[in-house]
């Protein structure tokens, strides 16, 4: 056999073996399906628990859930919705609900997720948890969005190339190992509870400001309002009104310390204008479609819940309503859902000062009320206000040294 023939024979064997290996990896990854992309077979103890599904943000799994399951109600929002709003709450007893909240998200992602859901589901109700941060121009597309079905950039070719990758093989192996060990994904219909018995709230309150909101350009440190993202909100409102989808809106109840952080960063006027813009959009779209305006609650502000006392440093006493200043817990989420979904029925255990219905007609009075409450908080909680200012100063000093 000549040299050329030997080389040709070698190449045939090499590419043949390589092809068989790639086919084996592809078949294995398809069968285990760690993100639930295809769901060809789900076997308990092998791959039924998609334990790595939220490793890169959870967008991929959520898009797959929307594609493969049936829902008539969705919850839109950011991580505040993900960690607090339970789709199996008793208020939804007659509905099929999915929590479509996305962590570290923005209005572009939320809009794309909504559009994908509209293509795959016959929706009756949309509950929209609104957060100031999602409307920032600096908030980039993150996590595994482009690998999810929410993105138009996701296609069959990208799926195939991924399913023959070694990292996908690692995730498949980890999925099997975790299932055999009895590990489960702590998730219910897109809702992930974050409660921890070991959480020191005071430290968590400090960390969320120091390591994120005071320093991260994608949060408050670089906040720039975006008319384009307001437009996307308008399009969701318009689509719901045009298609008979009941829309219920609310602004999340961040802790009062979080509002103080916004104030010290001189974002409070922008925050107020954002609220004005939202109620204006809601009214304009309702008038355009000759519909009654969707109910719109504002739970942000200074009230008996958002001013909850924070345990002293080193004390691991569990707070009733909050994880840290940005995120509230399931208990408060349940109360919110009771108020928002049951309206116009009253909720007996809801504090009278928690939440106001807002419209174009009452927004200025509402904002004035919050400013008054802010003044009372600053007089009654001087320590907390000083702590926020101290943290802000520390972050600025550290950044000055780095620069």
SSE topology:
Layout: H1 3-32, H2 59-68, E1 73-76, H3 79-82, E2 97-99, H4 107-120, E3 125-130, H5 156-163, H6 166-180, H7 201-213, H8 227-242, E4 246-251, H9 256-264, H10 268-288, E5 295-298, H11 330-342, E6 356-357, H12 363-380, H13 382-402
Parallel strand pairs: 1-2, 1-3, 3-4, 4-5
Antiparallel strand pairs: 5-6
Helix pairs in contact: 1-6, 4-8, 8-10, 9-13
Notes on the structure:
The chain is of the alpha/beta class and 403 residues long. It has one domain (59-402). Helices cover 48% and strands 6% of the residues. The chain has a six-stranded mixed β-sheet with strand order 2-1-3-4-5-6. Helix 3 (79-82) links the parallel strand 1 and strand 2 (97-99). Helix 1 (3-32) packs across helix 6 (166-180). The relative contact order is 0.12.
